[in-house]
Amino acid sequence: MTKFHVCAAADLPSGEAKRIESEPAVSVFHVGGEYFALADLCTHGDASMADGYIEDDCTVECPLHAARFCLRTGKALSQPAYIDLATYPVSIEDGEIYVTVESAA
């Protein structure tokens, strides 16, 4: 497992996302005071979820084909996606956001 620094919490406003160049790549989202991390690439197409449309109901819509995913669980909620996204733990330490990723073997 590897812990990656994302940014200062103050640098990721609510309703925004940031892509982390890790292996695998991860998108970190801030919604209403909570932080979530998902695998960055949509399971349907080659689109970055960090570029998606974040909704107030804690979902993100893929910018390519409008598939929706739950930020809490990574569950695919609408077609054309049917495969869930991986989720990763997020922590805040001294005002900094970190995500822990289990590296691919």
Automatic annotation (TrEMBL):
Residues of the Rieske domain: 4-99
GO molecular function terms listed in the Swiss-Prot or TrEMBL record: 3-phenylpropionate dioxygenase activity
Enzyme class: oxidoreductase
Alphabetized Pfam families for the sequence: Rieske
UniProt keywords, alphabetically: 2Fe-2S, Dioxygenase, Iron, Iron-sulfur, Metal-binding, Oxidoreductase, Plasmid
The enzyme's E.C. designation: 1.14.12.19
InterPro entries per the UniProt record, alphabetical: Rieske_2Fe-2S, Rieske_2Fe-2S_sf, Ring-hydroxylating_fd
Protein name, UniProt field: Bifunctional 3-phenylpropionate/cinnamic acid dioxygenase ferredoxin subunit
Organism whose genome encodes this protein: Novosphingobium humi
